[in-house]
Amino acid sequence: MGQKINPLGFRLGTTQSHHSFWFAKPKNFSMGLQEDERIRNCIKDYVKKNKRISSGFEGIAHIGIQKRIDLIQVIIYIGFPNLLIEGRTRGVEELQMNVQKEFHSVNRRLNIAITRIEKPYGQPNILAEYIALQLKNRVSFRKAMKKAIELTEQTGTKGIQVQIAGRIDGKEIARVEWIREGRVPLQTIRAKIDHCSHTIRTIYGVLGIKIWIFVNQE
């Protein structure tokens, strides 16, 4: 069978760069990795708690982390800035305090910056959240996938593939359904492809969503 590889890891050093920048000795590496995970989870939980009920999704594309000796710089790439700031200028400061509390680092400052993304629906994470929200509201999966593809096409991407796996529509037997629009050259390393996998908990079990977006070719 075809050996599947994560398109992001496959392209590291050509079209992809790391989301975390830091160096550590081999014995401290795992601690640094866990710290990154904690920071990301803490930010996502905070956004989940403080978002508006109506919007229903976080709108975070990805979180970049850069560590220096005395500073941890966290950059949140966000599609819809009002979700996080929400009319309060204190939103970011409050988030900073929350994350600082989460890991008790005495000699390192934490700095959080927010970067807005021009075309949020060109980001696979935001699209996956959009589809997850539709499926939770019992919209048929084909409709949700087609709507997501329409939204992506408006951002000028060259191709997109969406795959949903699990007990779709509550059927007894789990299956995989996918839909592709345009080109998605997964074998071409020069092709810049964004990918994400997202799990959603529905009332009849867990569904997995995978999205590949072909942005451009270098």
TrEMBL record:
The keyword Ribosomal protein applies. The keyword Methyltransferase does not apply. Keywords: Chloroplast, Plastid, Ribonucleoprotein, Ribosomal protein. One of its GO terms (cellular component) is chloroplast. It comes from the Eukaryota. GO terms for molecular function: RNA binding; structural constituent of ribosome. One of its GO terms (biological process) is translation. Residues 131-213 form the Small ribosomal subunit protein uS3 C-terminal domain. Its main location: plastid. It is found in: Plastid, Chloroplast. Part of the 30S ribosomal subunit. PANTHER family: 30S/40S RIBOSOMAL PROTEIN S3, SMALL RIBOSOMAL SUBUNIT PROTEIN US3C. NCBIfam families: rpsC_bact. HAMAP family: Ribosomal_uS3_B (MF_01309_B). Belongs to the universal ribosomal protein uS3 family. This is Small ribosomal subunit protein uS3c. The gene is rps3.
